[in-house]
Write a structure and sequence with these properties.
The chain contains ten helices and six strands. With 248 residues, it is an alpha/beta fold. Bound molecules: 8-Amino-N1-Cyclic Inosine 5'-Diphosphoribose.
Length: 248
């Protein structure tokens, strides 16, 4: 029991790797390159799957670094046209709906974001297999797990590469619409380039009053991060879901 508990596949507190992880990556990659970007230069999906899995296979699942994902990002990162990028924090579904209606692009609309969205993965030191039983949980096990570090590395690359006016959809029904500990707060906002304009939308849940606004302390904190980087900032608050999705 002791040995099973302390060195077994079940020792982590997070969801295990998604069944058929490698097959799903390959299929999503084939679909993306054929359907979503027809005519774009064909991508080597087998190579991309290989680069993704070798980033974490047989490694300590708590010792992920951004460098582990550099080969994958260098191989498969795709840029988004100027004025098209949409960021989000605690508003995933709404931001995706907004982007879809307006022809804008979230990170999940790029190749690497679409490959990983909704999946879970980790390896096991000395094993060629994924751990399908459990993976480290950000809070209970370790922050430097391969799942979290992937989203941080990819989000950083995304933020560094956006241009023009970009948008962020924030949740106006929570106390701090801007959360400096979120990926948007600690990775994306601080990596926007000079000359970018960020337009923030604070959208609150239907039937509830807003809990944060453009003049509240959390948005002031976002503004100060952007000011230091000479990123221009526009903010609109007090929007219901319908107003936001319908507005121009
Ligand atoms: N981004 C980050 N995390 C993402 C993601 C993504 O595109 N896609 C998924 N599935 N995830 P949150 P946040 C997973 O607090 O931290 C980019 C990760 O497990 O609601 O501010 C995207 O460009 C991650 O921990 O948002 C967006 O702008 C949670 O979902 C921000 O970063 C996200 O939890 C969103 O990250």
């Amino acid at each position: 029991i002791y040995k099973w508990h302390h060195s077994g596949l079940n020792r982590w507190h997070g969801r295990g790797s998604t069944a058929d992880f490698q097959k799903i990556i390959q299929e999503r990659c084939d679909d993306y390159t054929q359907q979503i970007q027809p005519g774009a230069r064909s991508r080597n999906c087998q190579g991309i799957k290989q680069a993704f899995t070798s980033a974490f296979i047989s490694k300590d699942p708590c010792k992920a670094t951004k460098e582990d994902y550099k080969p994958l990002l260098d191989l498969a990162y795709t840029t988004v046209p100027c004025n098209k990028a949409v960021f989000w924090s605690k508003t995933k579904e709404l931001a995706h709906e907004y982007a879809k209606r307006r022809g804008l692009l979230t990170l999940e609309d790029t190749l690497l974001g679409s490959l990983a969205d909704g999946l879970s993965w980790c390896g096991e030191p000395g094993s060629p297999d994924l751990n399908y039983q459990s993976c480290p949980d950000w809070k209970k096990d370790c922050r430097t797990n391969y799942f979290s570090v992937f989203w941080e590395a990819l989000s950083e690359r995304f933020a560094e590469n956006v241009c023009g006016t970009v948008q962020v959809v924030l949740n106006g029904s929570i106390e701090n619409a801007f959360d400096k500990m979120s990926i948007f707060g600690r990775v994306e906002a601080p990596n926007l380039r000079q000359m970018v304009t960020l337009k923030a939308w604070l959208v609150h849940d239907p039937g509830k009053p807003p809990s944060d606004s453009c003049s509240g302390p959390s948005i002031k904190e976002l503004e100060s991060i952007l000011n230091q980087r000479s990123v221009r900032f526009i903010c609109r608050d007090n929007l219901s879901r319908d107003q936001f999705l319908g507005s121009y």
